[in-house]
Amino acid sequence: MTEKLKRLASNWRLYVILIVLLGGMVFLLSTAGTAYAVDSPDQPPGQMDGEIDLAPQTQAGVADCLACHSLPNQFLTFPDGEKISVTITLDEYNLSIHGAMGFDCQTCHKDITGFPHPEVQAQNLREFVVNREDICIDCHPAQYSQLKDSIHYTVLSEGNINAPVCSDCHNPHARSVLGQNPLQMEMAVTSEICASCHNSIYVEYAQSVHGKALFQQDNPDVPGCTDCHGTHDIADPTTAMARLTSPELCAKCHSNHAIMDKYGLSTDVLSTYLSDFHGKSVFVSEKLDPNQPVPEPVCYDCHGAHRTMETSNPLFNIQAKENLLSVCQKCHPDASINFPSAWLSHYIPSPSHFPLVYYVQRFYQVFVPTVIGGMALFVATDWGRRIWNNARSKQKEKHEDEDQKDNDEK
Question: What is the predicted pLDDT for the residue at 339?
Answer without folding.
Answer: 87
